[in-house]
Structure formats: structure tokens, C-alpha cells
Amino acid sequence: MSKNTVLIVEDEEDIRTLLVYNLGKEGFSVTAVESGELGLQHAIANHPDLIILDLMLPGMDGLSVCRALKNSDKTRDIPIIIASAKGEEADIIVGLEMGADDYVAKPFSPKVLIARIRALMRRTGQQPADQSVAVRIHELEIDPVKFKARLAGEKIELTTNEFRMLHFLVRHTGWVFTRYQIVNAVRGEDYVVTERAIDVQIAGLRKKLGKHADYIETVRGIGYRFKE
Questions:
Q1: Which of 59, 117, 60 is nearest to 83 (CA)?
Q2: The domain spanning residue 202 has which CATH number?
Q3: How far apart are CA 93 and CA 95, in angstroms?
Q4: Could you tell me if 58 and 34 lie in one domain?
Q5: I need a surface site. Which of 127, 129, 138, 184 has the fewest CB within 10 A?
Q6: What's the pLDDT at 68?
Q7: What's the pTM?
Q8: Same domain membership, residue 204 and residue 222
Q9: What mean pLDDT comes out for the span 196-217?
Q10: pLDDT tens per residue, range 70-102
Q11: What is the domain range of residue 107?
Q12: Peptide bond preceding 79: is omega within 30 degrees of 0, i.e. cis?
């Protein structure tokens, strides 16, 4: 079986060396470059399985690299983890809205980063199959084929949008999504929606979950996730 390939785009040599060593030890095939331009060129030419991307890079910055990759049909499906010293809420929101799949603030534990890499690869690799497979977590059961949801054995009456949104969040348990990431996944990127509309849908879901409403967590300043 071929190794999963990871591209590291990081200008600090010490961090590049640390990541190459730890990822290599875990069985990944790793390439590391020191600039945004080189990272973009390598991603287009080699299509790695995942990219770890710094934001503060010489020349072409990380957000520009992320935007270029996500705007290209050839590279938009490559999962991107931003690893940056810019860890404020606003920075995280911008990174996720730009299309990054996860955001890790420096300094970080290599073990934690590797765990998130594996989780992201599972998530992106299994997503098509998950869309038609029944999901069970906590006391919640969702059957996308029959379009039914049950909580503690009792049927939950959901609107189409509520069902799709709940199914999406449950399939990605523990992952934080912005409001626009949620609507893009549920309705497609061309669907126009406001942040307030997503909040209303979430409020409706929580009401129908009753005493289990806390399954859906609000991540302040970013969006929502389904509790692990």
C-alpha cells in the first residue's frame, strides 16, 4: 500500500525539520518547502494527500496559497491544515472561510497535529460513503436513505434543511465549521444565505433535540460542531 503524501509549506527550518521527522516516523511520505510559491507549484504538480500550510510566508502568503488551491478544480479537494502563530479568533475564521479544513495554532504538539491529520484524512476519504450510511452516536440515529432521525428511540420531525445540517455535523463529529461552510456543504456554494439564517436553523435543531440540545456546541467567534 502506498504511503499517504503530505506537503509542508513552512519557512522556519526548525519546524520543517521537526514535522518531516515526526510525520516520516509515522509512515507518511513528506515533502517540505519554504515558500508559498514553491508550495503552490508542488501541490499543482504532485497533488499531495494533505497540505500543512503556514500563513506568514515570504513572498506569497499562506492565505493566498490556500485561496489559489481552493479556487482550482485540480487542487480544491486537497485537505489543508493551517498551522500558524496567528491564533486569534479572527485569524482562524479567515483561514476557515478561505477554505482550509482545519486550523492549528503554534506552538503545537506534533502528536496532536498527527492525530488531526489522520482524522482529516479519514473524514475526507470516507465522506462519499458516509453520505448514504446510517449514523449512530450518543442516543441519536440518522438514516439518510430513509430520511429519518431518531433520538433515544423516538422519531424526530425535521425539516429537509434541518435533517441535512444535522447529518452533516454528525458525520464530522468534533469538527468545527463556520456557518458558510455548513451551508456550502448542505446546499451548495451558490446558495445565498446569511449567518442569521444558519443560527435560526441551529436553534430549531436544538429545540427538537430537547434535553440533548448540547450535542450541538457553539464555538464562539467561529461556528458550530457536534460534540464528540
A1: 117
A2: 1.10.10.10
A3: 5
A4: yes
A5: 129
A6: 93
A7: 0.60
A8: yes
A9: 88
A10: 888 889 889 999 998 887 777 777 888 788 888
A11: 5-127
A12: no
Ramachandran region, residue 210 (left: φ > 0; alpha: ψ -120 to 50; beta: rest): left
In this structure, are 112 and 171 located in the same domain? Answer: no
Same domain for 123 and 16: yes
- pLDDT mean over 114-129: 68
CB atoms within 10 A of CB 1: 4
Rounded CA separation 143/132 (Å) = 8
106 and 177 inside one domain: no
Q: Which amino acid is at 168?
A: F
Structure confidence at residue 189 as a pLDDT band (50, 70, 90)? very low
Judgement on whether residues 95 and 183 belong to the same structural domain of the protein: no
Q: What is the pLDDT of residue 195?
A: 63
Pair 92, 61 in one domain: yes
Burial of 71 (0-12, 13-18, 19+ CB in 10 A): exposed
Same domain for 137 and 219: yes
E-strand ranges in 70-124 read 80-84, 102-105
The domain boundary residue, chosen from 63, 97, 127: 127
SS3 helix, strand, coil % of the chain, rounded to 5? 45, 20, 35
Tell me which of 92, 127, 162 is where a domain ends.
Answer: 127
Question: pLDDT value at position 129?
Answer: 41
pLDDT in tens, 43-68: 999 999 999 999 999 999 999 999 99
